[in-house]
Structures are given as C-alpha cells and as structure tokens.
Automatic annotation (TrEMBL):
Protein name per UniProt: Branched-chain amino acid transport system ATP-binding protein
Record-stated family: Belongs to the ABC transporter superfamily.
Keywords: Amino-acid transport, ATP-binding, Nucleotide-binding, Transport
Record domain ABC transporter: where: 4-228
Signal peptide: none
Gene3D superfamilies reported for this sequence: P-loop containing nucleotide triphosphate hydrolases
Pfam families the record matches: ABC_tran
Species, as recorded: Labrys monachus
Length: 228
C-alpha cells in the first residue's frame, strides 16, 4: 500500500518560499530518490515528512492518515527515521555507543541487542571498529554509522538526506548496496535525497526531480535510464 503521500505542500521560511506545491507518493517497499541541485528544497521536503517543518498549505499522509501538526516524536513512532545531511553522529562517543543511542528508542534491551548483532553483519567496517571514537571514522564509515543508527530504531521508512555527499564513487556504491540489503532484510522503504542521479538511477525504483521548490519530473528509474 501507499506509505507516504505528500499532496501539494507549500513551505516558507519567513519571506523565502522553499516549496511551492510539492507532491509525491512512496509505496511500501519502494526505493525512491528526490534529485535536485543545492537549494531545490530536498531537505525541506524530508523535514516536512518527518515533522521538522510545518507546511502552510497542502497535506502529508502516512498510511493514509494526516500527520500535519504532529510533533516529530509522534511521527517517528509511526515508523519513520531520518538520516540527516551531515550525519550528526557523536564524534567523541564510540561506534557502539552511537548505535546504542538509536537502540534506546526500543524499550526491550534484548531485542535491541539482537538487532545490533544482526545489523552489524551488514556493516563489517563498523563491526571491526565498534570501540573507536566515531569522530575517527572515515566519511564513508560515518555515513554508514548514521544509517545504522537510524535503522536501530526499527523504522519502516528511512529518509536519507544526501548520503553520497563528499564520498568517493566506490563508497557511494557500497552505501547503496547496504541500503538495498536493508530494504530486503529489514523490509525498509527508502526515500533518498541526492544532487545527481549519476550513480543513483541503477539503485532506485523511481525518481522525482525537484528544482526551485517545484517538482519538475517523476518517472521510473529504468525509463529515465533508457532515455539517456
Ligand atoms: P536542498 O536540500 O535541496 O539543498 P533545502 O530544502 O535545504 O534545499 O533549501 C530550500 C531553500 O530553503 C533554500 O533556498 C534554502 O536556503 C532555504 N532554507 C532551508 N532551510 C532554511 C531555514 N532553516 N531558514 C531559512 N531558509 C532556509
Ligand atoms: P547487558 O545488558 O547484557 O549487561 P551491556 O550493557 O554490557 O549488556 O551491553 C552488551 C552489548 O549489548 C553491548 O556491547 C551492545 O552491543 C549491546 N546492547 C546493549 N544494550 C543495547 C541497546 N539498548 N541497544 C543496542 N545494543 C545494545
């Protein structure tokens, strides 16, 4: 079924109109990418879905129910988890400690522990560095940690803001392989922001192109690839 529906939302920051009528839909199990240049409104779109900004017009529905006016904590309880741009890991804490912060949202420690063990199989680079200060990880490892920590909250929908930012092509592919693996194993639905579609088309089911706060294009990734 339809997990997320964004219907003609408008968002402004003071005088600046960031979104001028943005609509999108994500079906359960899909991998959907929003592609657009810096300033297009990608982060604002994810923030609106996660409850961090409130649209002045339009509707956002999760499982068919409106979430407008709900606080981010309430929305998170519906099974949403946001991996923000810039990763926001705790650099002086260890990898293990960062992951446990994600696990605290789960009340059952035994379940959290089992999740962590299973999750670390997907992240061998993190498993080998569990007791490193997270600030000493490479950029790619920090991105993996940010994703793993978000997954520790057991979301159904992972919102990921520019996971490729500043990373080498090889690492980007690794991160996408992990995301696609998580989609299978943890039954995740993915909505991902990226600036460029170059390395992304082959991983996504569908793409939206956002520019200047408006949706320009929507299509199946396979069709967009054929049309190149
Ligand atoms: P993107 O993620 O595509 O780079 P953003 O959603 O971050 O785009 O930004 C869309 C527009 O809104 C930009 O013009 C940006 O400068 C502006 N903007 C984003 N966040 C804020 C904020 N907190 N206050 C004021 N303006 C903002
Ligand atoms: P115990 O509860 O068995 O005394 P510890 O607190 O010593 O366990 O943690 C042992 C390991 O279990 C940790 O290294 C960590 O990997 C995992 N763990 C414990 N609590 C959590 C949690 N809330 N979330 C995720 N992992 C956890």
């Amino acid at each position: 079924g339809r997990l997320v529906e964004v219907d003609d939302i408008h968002v402004r920051y003071g005088d600046l109109v960031a979104l001028r009528g943005v609509s999108l839909a994500v079906e359960e199990g899909e991998v959907v990418c929003i592609i657009g240049p810096n300033g297009a409104g990608k982060s604002t779109t994810l923030a609106a879905i996660a409850g961090g900004v409130t649209p002045e017009a339009g509707a956002i529905r999760i499982d068919g129910r409106s979430i407008l006016g709900q606080r981010p904590e309430q929305i998170a309880r519906l099974g949403l988890s946001l991996v923000p741009e810039g990763r926001h890991i705790f650099g002086t804490l260890t990898v293990d400690e960062n992951l446990r912060i994600g696990g605290y949202i789960q009340r059952d420690r035994t379940a959290a522990k089992a999740d962590l063990e299973r999750l670390l199989e997907l992240f061998p680079r993190l498993a080998e560095r569990l007791h490193y200060p997270a600030g000493r990880l490479s950029g790619g490892e920090q991105q993996m940690l940010a994703v793993a920590r978000a997954v520790m909250t057991r979301p159904r929908l992972l919102l990921v803001d520019e996971p490729s930012l500043g990373l080498a092509p090889k690492i980007i592919d690794q991160i996408y392989e992990i995301l696609l693996d998580l989609r299978q194993r943890a039954k995740l639905t993915l909505l991902i922001n990226e600036q460029s579609s170059n390395r992304i088309l082959k991983h996504a089911d569908r793409i939206y192109v956002l520019r200047g706060g408006s949706m320009q294009l929507e299509g199946r990734a396979a069709d967009l690839q054929d049309g190149e």
